Amino acid sequence: MRKLIAALLLCALWLAQSDLAHAQDPRDPYAYRFVQVGGKFDNPLYLTHAGDGSGRLFVVEQAGQVWIMYEDGRTLDQPFLDINALVTDDTFRAGYTERGLLSLAFHPQYAQNGVFFVYYFDRDGHTVLARYRVSADDPNRADPNSGTILLRIRQPFNDHNGGGLKFGPDGYLYLSVGDGGGTQGDPEGNAQNLSVLLGKILRLDVSDLNSDRYAIPPDNPFVNVPNAAPEIWAYGLRNPWRISFDRETGDLYIADVGWAGAEEVNFVPSGSKGGMNFGWNIMEGNNRLSDKPLGEDYMPPFVAYDHIQGCSVTGGYVYRGGQLQALRGLYFYGDYCNGNVWIAERNRDGVWQTRLFRNTRRQISSFGEDERGELYLIDYKGYVLRLQRS
């Protein structure tokens, strides 16, 4: 009997130690969870902050509204911006569409100048970049009459229009534009055509806040290339839905939604001069689709997965918050179709390693950061969730 009791005690001790080790693993995905913040939104696509120390979060709804939410979940009763009349048409009544208000970027000196930029798909079938200003009377309301269109790009189809809008560490505005090819695999060959803006990352100088035009950064890679659009910074993309800069290193991450077989995420190290070709529609992920030459500027993705693992990649952020120290430096990304969230990092040899963080069972339309670097997940069904300890 004593031997049996001793054996049971040893077994219980081993199990307790095993559970303790599991619980103390700082990167154990079960040590963290995405927790809903605030109430329900209508088809939210994006979340960002103004960088002004206010603690406000700005939630972008596809139908053209931007709402202010605080970190405790409190949401203001009136929208910060409402451009519904510019973006909404009957396609919203038929279910999911890639049209609408897609993203928002605040000027790096927003606290001083009150300027921000929006990226939307208009009623006439164009991708639009527009500049707005905050109201002079109310910091929680934009001036609806301040809109200035800086760029309009004709889109041949109603989807695969891109959607990323970010200021880089160099102060220039980066805009990710899809190939406009719909479900047909870029039939116009836009992504590899340097004379058009479709299927590209654009880099623009928007520092003149009183102009109705942008300027071209003089060191853009195709400025002096005959017949090339000088706005282009990188090319060979299908539908770069979300992009982000690592706020600590300046590295750029580009998540490109695939076509028939693969999803991918591309990595551009800080200080790059641009000019790289990400391969579409010669490549999709690591799959070769054409015998056309890629050239020396081809840059393969660091993440590529087939459609058994998902069907629509959603790019995220490198976590740089202060609440979850064990996760600092990890790049989070997900998939819209199955709700998977993965993490990626480079080991000491510079080799990328990825693993499943957890399945959220959410329709991940975007990730977001607050001003402190804490990570949020946006569920297209209407919810904002923050990553925190379990």
Automatic annotation (TrEMBL):
<feature type="signal peptide">
    <location>
        <begin position="1"/>
        <end position="23"/>
    </location>
</feature>
<dbReference type="InterPro" id="IPR011041">
    <property type="entry name" value="Quinoprot_gluc/sorb_DH_b-prop"/>
</dbReference>
<protein>
    <submittedName>
        <fullName>Glucose dehydrogenase</fullName>
    </submittedName>
</protein>
<keyword id="KW-0732">Signal</keyword>
<dbReference type="Pfam" id="PF07995">
    <property type="entry name" value="GSDH"/>
</dbReference>
<dbReference type="InterPro" id="IPR011042">
    <property type="entry name" value="6-blade_b-propeller_TolB-like"/>
</dbReference>
<dbReference type="InterPro" id="IPR012938">
    <property type="entry name" value="Glc/Sorbosone_DH"/>
</dbReference>
<feature type="domain" description="Glucose/Sorbosone dehydrogenase">
    <location>
        <begin position="42"/>
        <end position="379"/>
    </location>
</feature>
